[in-house]
Design a protein that fits this description.
5-stranded parallel β-sheet; 47% helix; 5 strands; globular; Rossmann fold; alpha/beta
Length: 152
């Protein structure tokens, strides 16, 4: 299960992600990005995140009042939807998060209570881990594209 949340929500998300990891057998992957979304570095980060998303069986957005404004979260959710991953959302702050809820519902997400056991059960029900994508022309093209950019 891929976890996404806004960088501003890190203090609220950190204990939740710790409980999720301790609650079950599901492997969680997360990325916290705060750099510029539209940049060469942003392109590299998106390619890395996309490779990680492809290996996940579902995606979970831990959302708060400003989650819908975060470019990285919106991109991760849209990418998960395009990959046809089951999408879930759980409110970190139940009040003042209506815009984030509307975004999640529009993308087809199932809204869950912020309960570790319930979230883990939904992640387990999403299915077994995906096999990594075999190396093909697209994979090679992505790698060559990334090699054009400096890592600095």
């Amino acid at each position: 299960m891929f976890l996404t949340f806004a960088a501003d929500d890190l203090p609220l998300a950190r204990p939740v992600t710790a409980r999720l990891r301790a609650a079950g057998t599901v492997v969680f992957d997360q990325a916290l990005t705060g750099g510029p979304f539209v940049s060469a570095r942003g392109e590299i980060i998106r390619a890395s995140l996309l490779a990680r998303l492809r290996r996940c069986t579902s995606a979970l957005c831990l959302y708060g009042a400003r989650t819908h404004e975060d470019d990285w979260v919106r991109w991760a959710l849209t990418s998960a939807t395009e990959l046809e991953l089951p999408l879930f959302g759980a409110a970190l702050t139940p009040h003042h998060a209506r815009d984030a809820e509307r975004l999640l519902v529009r993308l087809g997400a199932e809204l869950l209570p912020l309960d570790s056991d319930h979230i883990v059960a939904c992640a387990e029900a999403a299915g077994p881990a995906r096999d990594p994508r075999p190396v093909d022309v697209t994979t090679i093209a992505e790698a060559l594209h990334l090699m054009r950019h400096s890592n600095r």
